[in-house]
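Dear H.,

Thanks for agreeing to be a second pair of eyes. The structure we're designing against is below in token form, covering all 201 positions.
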């Protein structure tokens, strides 16, 4: 039976989830893996959820990830991590930004932003229900490098630790996908995200 790796990326419109998925797709295809991607945009331009399913391996039957099937979830903020948590398999890896982006129902007062999401995720990791929890303030990393919209590229730096592909492949993907005028800042953001996890370990 061939191994298929399933990655769910969840974010908010304008945060760069689509760019992150394109970069990862480039890395996967460069190594000759079969790849299937499905993207769902829920009013992305208004700050709605953006969801990308990425599945790769020697043979991939479907791009869709069912509940409890994701090996890795990459979430661009805490609420997105909590929203998609049921899709993570037992022992799967959660990668998320610690930033908080209030959705419209919270802004209007119709709902409350859930409390202590990060603490709850840490408890799940401590109990062994998550294989690992990698959390950084991706927005702060991206701002430090000069481009707030590159926050998910910082998270991609964390993801690089969890996959079998060499670091150089991600840098080559950035060179192939990102426009020249944004390349250096995206490279710096990716590398700082990558190094942040190295310092935590």
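And this is the sequence the design step returned. I haven't edited it by hand at all.
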């Amino acid at each position: 039976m061939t191994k298929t790796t399933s990655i769910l990326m969840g974010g908010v419109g304008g945060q760069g989830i689509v760019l992150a998925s394109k970069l990862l797709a480039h890395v996967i295809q460069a190594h000759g893996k079969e790849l299937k991607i499905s993207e769902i945009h829920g009013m992305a331009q208004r700050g709605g959820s953006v969801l990308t399913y990425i599945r790769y391996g020697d043979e991939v039957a479907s791009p869709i990830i069912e509940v409890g099937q994701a090996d890795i979830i990459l979430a661009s903020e805490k609420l997105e991590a909590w929203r998609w948590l049921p899709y993570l398999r037992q022992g799967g890896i959660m990668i998320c930004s610690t930033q908080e982006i209030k959705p419209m129902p919270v802004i209007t007062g119709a709902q409350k932003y859930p409390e202590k999401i990060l603490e709850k995720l840490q408890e799940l990791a401590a109990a062994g229900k998550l294989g690992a929890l990698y959390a950084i303030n991706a927005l702060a990393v991206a701002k430090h490098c000069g481009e707030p919209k590159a926050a998910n590229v910082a998270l991609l730096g964390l993801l690089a630790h969890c996959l079998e592909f060499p670091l150089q492949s991600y840098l080559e993907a950035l060179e192939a996908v990102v426009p020249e005028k944004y390349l250096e800042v995206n490279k710096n953001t990716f590398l700082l995200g990558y190094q942040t996890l190295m310092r935590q370990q």
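Two observations from my side: The beta strands are 4-12, 34-41, 49-57, 70-75, 88-97, 132-136. The first strand starts at residue 4 and ends at 12.

Warmly,
E.
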